[in-house]
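Model the whole thing, not chain by chain.
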Amino acid sequence: MRVSQFFLSTLKEAPTEAELVSHKLMLRAGLIKRLGSGLYSWMPLGLKVLRKVENIVREEMDRAGAIELLMPAVIPAELWQETGRWDVFGPQMLKIRDRHEREFCFGPTHEEVITDVARREIKSYRQLPINFYQIQTKFRDEIRPRFGVMRAREFVMKDSYSFHADRASLEQTYEVMYQTYSRIFTRLGLKFRAVAADTGAIGGSGSHEFHVLADSGEDAIAFCPSSDYAANVELAEAVSPSAPRPAPTQPMQKISTPGKHSIEQVCEYLKVPAEKTVKTLLVEGRDGGVVALLLRGDHELNEVKAGKLLQLPEAVRFASDAQILAAAGCRAGSLGPVGLNIPIIADRSVAVMSDFVCGANEDGYHLTGVNFVRDLPELKEVVDIRNAVEGDPSPDGKGILELCRGIEVGHIFQLGNKYSSAMNATFLDESGKDRVMEMGCYGIGVSRIVAAAIEQNHDARGIIWPPSIAPYELAIVPIGMGRSELVKDTVNKLYADLKAAGIEVLLDDRDERPGVMFADMELVGIPHRIVVGERGLKEGNLEYQGRRDEKAQAIALNSVLEFVQSKLCED
Amino acid sequence: MRVSQFFLSTLKEAPTEAELVSHKLMLRAGLIKRLGSGLYSWMPLGLKVLRKVENIVREEMDRAGAIELLMPAVIPAELWQETGRWDVFGPQMLKIRDRHEREFCFGPTHEEVITDVARREIKSYRQLPINFYQIQTKFRDEIRPRFGVMRAREFVMKDSYSFHADRASLEQTYEVMYQTYSRIFTRLGLKFRAVAADTGAIGGSGSHEFHVLADSGEDAIAFCPSSDYAANVELAEAVSPSAPRPAPTQPMQKISTPGKHSIEQVCEYLKVPAEKTVKTLLVEGRDGGVVALLLRGDHELNEVKAGKLLQLPEAVRFASDAQILAAAGCRAGSLGPVGLNIPIIADRSVAVMSDFVCGANEDGYHLTGVNFVRDLPELKEVVDIRNAVEGDPSPDGKGILELCRGIEVGHIFQLGNKYSSAMNATFLDESGKDRVMEMGCYGIGVSRIVAAAIEQNHDARGIIWPPSIAPYELAIVPIGMGRSELVKDTVNKLYADLKAAGIEVLLDDRDERPGVMFADMELVGIPHRIVVGERGLKEGNLEYQGRRDEKAQAIALNSVLEFVQSKLCED
């Protein structure tokens, strides 16, 4: 494509509204234009990237045997009422009334629609399993849309839904989708991790999130660099320390700690590291009574784990000041396990501690040199109730955990029969009995991937596209095309030759100043660049620079095609 | 694709809701499934056709230098308020309120959005002309959605919008789009006509509609089979008869015609053909007075032409009984031009009549043998105010008009500056002056084309796809695949060979009864079919039948690939 016949619209400065690097660069490179809050037009250059992402997703879904269809964006309320989600989905669902005052929504997801299709179309076990997918514009009315297409209201999603005769078949397709997603993100050229995830609002059990790793990610991920273990920090297991509990060496002492309530204050005052302290948290148990949770001073309570352990229906509730006073005779800042007459649950790390510091259950006092068995009863309940931290052993035993941040771009779920039973999606099994189908669902945030790719791949000069989704593979920048017939003729021939070889070339034929053209080609992130200037040509040379290269190199004009092809093969 | 791994879902009977052939066949062939009123899911087989249409449209738009982008489906009300269309678009526009009670609509068309893009992006004449397009899901809240995807509420459209420095540039791009649309519909394999059209609601001037010819079409078209002339019947010129007015041969006589008011009644009573009668219609002129319009008895008034002629702001209004009585002294059924003392406007066909019959301006009487000049003054105003009819000379002088019906699938407009001036979309011209851009817009009903193609191409057994948009090019139907190893092996090898040759093959490996498989492949409209049976194989033969062929023919197994390729080349 010649720039003069295309539409390139770059900006020197990003609009002030943009906070995230990807948002700034997408606006500056002219990939998107804002129409309204959370609403963006995909400009020609941006659409090229979006379509490349779409195509890779489509090819891999097809390869996995999934079958593409296209459901309406506008969905009647009745379907959502069958599953009860019309009322519980909340204001993220954009509700609509038509001219006859009938209710609809702009589909934020399509479980109900596809389950309706399945219950009408699938009669027999012989039609199962089947996996339908679509690539479609969806809408979620985010309360605070921001970060450009990263959290837009209107967005493009690949959503697929599989139907099965039994759980084993669901698990098989789930595994195929896991592998397919891994292949998709690998082909997209992104560093990613599949992390075990909690199932969240869609419901069901068994799910992985696919995260593109980037410092700006909203989610904290614990992963093992020497294996494929990865989990949301909230779900990563903190395994038991392998070393046994050391024997006591200090006597227990009660020490005045006036005004020292936090672990930090106590550590500073007593000159002990936080790892040598025990933090005691009182929470409400399932029966309304109070339970003590013990954590090492430098660890954080994982409320999801604690909630599951205590079998709480909702979130963990911390005890009130009055409950604490009644249970321990002091305020929260002086709590400790010694002499405490309520159920005690300890984190695994606490169980191997000795000579530790904790509150004395008396305002203004702490205990030092505390030891289990000697100073307080041996722990009865030792469990995992903390967040994993950097340096923890990986739960798969294959290394040490690191923490990073990720942008969620894919999610796969084993839904089970949540939707199929609510909507009575049944089939006749081999013995002629009516049975409810099992379902899986698998989403990819197609438009979000474009932003995530930039978060992971950019520098001060702009975007550095992974080659598989670059809008063009190669930029040709002629110097003085308007002045030099030699440059002009060379460039036109080169452009024709490279195009004929099937290479996607962007020829900057604007005859702008070189600095302007270089800056634009770098900003929009074309992976390879060839500069054609009269001086080099006279020596039979062009100049090549990869987007990540620090310096340009001279290449011979007569071998340029081979050179470019070998560079593209390296990608 | 193997049917066992695809999703084929055909019906014996179409649901009773379907009236139109295309709607029935799309449901029976399982191309679409109804979700709600005017809302359809595109099932896998239907989506394949839709995507083929999309791709042809995209390729030809790209070839024409148009640039693809993608605007949001959800559009803020403010933009529509700038052009005033928020209030005048009417209930076809699906209006939406978001969680903050801000108003939006599900875009029925995108003039406002693209004009907003243009006014922000285009600063200089050097950026003009430019032609943007998108292929997108749109929504129009039809009062009575029907005919399946022919008049659905949610539909896929290609809409493009061009911007220009001046009218000449607009006309140039308009011509390019005219040629591009012709190429698109030719490649789609459809019989179509580009007809000069009135500009309707979108406004502006200079427009053509592209119609797929089909008996069920909603629009009547006059076209010349020996040239490319075509027009909406309402707009087709009825040219002047070439023969001169014959000399009078009869005396004028007043004849009693009791109770005979209509042309039909009078003709029957007097035993004269309608072509020998003159119909007199009184309508209100611009100043409120009454004007007489003369038409040949077998012709119909064209109200659009009459309205323009009389420079009426709205529709033609016929005179009331009281106005008729005051002007002519009789009721409507006895009106005639003789002795009539109001302005008279005659259709061109009337001007060459002699010895004609007309009302006598006296209830219950008609005149026969009437002649201009002799019995009433020569006509002063002779114009075209009738609908063209079959057999009229073509206005381009190249033949005789025929009438047919068409389905509108494309529309191109010269919008002028209607939107650009309302939204202040200006650019700096070569002399540095601010000027308003000229605009064109060009739509194609992508999803409607699928239905229109079926209306034009079907028989009693089902759909007959034009090859360029068939979901698969060739069906292989094995007979007794489960019983015969020979059939199975041959079919699998054939399938692999044809696929390797780049042919899109659907292999019906369901091992159903032959009748079921034949009926399905015919219903879904695969253009070419090969039947593989043991009996034929033993003689080294397969059976081939084209979807339009009356009979099958034997072909040699060892030359099947060449045979199929030559058949595909004929398409």
